[in-house]
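Box S2. Input/output pair 1.
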Amino acid sequence: DTFEIDPEIETECFFVEPDEPFHMGTLEENKLNLTLDFHRLLTVELQFKLKAINLQTIRHHELPDCYDFSLTITFDNKAHSGRIKISLDNDISIRECKDWHVSGSIQKNTHYMMIFDALVIL
């Protein structure tokens, strides 16, 4: 038997974007046309972004801070040793939120929050 080994690493990227809302139904109806050979994978990289807002500054009538998290989770199987190395890389940017709008009155809830904080401390 003769085997031809191709040392070139193939990279295949695909983007998962919700084009339309997910409909409940059978798993076959929602199945993607995607096949992965997990025993042949060398590296899997998941990249996503999260956004968060620090609302504590609104109590003091200040603009809230907005946080943008860029996360990358890498599953590295290059050694094929039976153990997969997992690494996490994150980049965080902090900026002042713009065009924000808070509805409702915070003044009414301030006293309740102070009472709740006092109970938690006790």
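Box S3. Input/output pair 2.
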Amino acid sequence: MKENIQERIRIVEKTELIMNLLQYRMYEIRYDFTMKFNQLTQQRNELKTGMMLKETESQAAFKIIETEKEIAECQNTYDAQHRCVKEQMLVSTKVTEPNICQY
């Protein structure tokens, strides 16, 4: 009985550690996305408000389009990474639950 309880505790602790690591990874992904997104959004806004007066309209328009593409790519990358970590969390939970219940 005591060994069973100790084994459950070990499994729960390992699961907790894995979840903490995955949650930290989720935080890193969100932080990186937010920083990049804010930078690109600011860049786009500066282009739109004419902060770069040296540029001709066509150059500014081209840069705005490129920035919009980068923003979309940034969002897609974030979504993919976020989904991946969430799936890892689900898999981790599914793998450890039966082990906890068997003891």
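Caption for Box S3: Residues 2-102 form one domain. The two ends are 9 Å apart (CA to CA).
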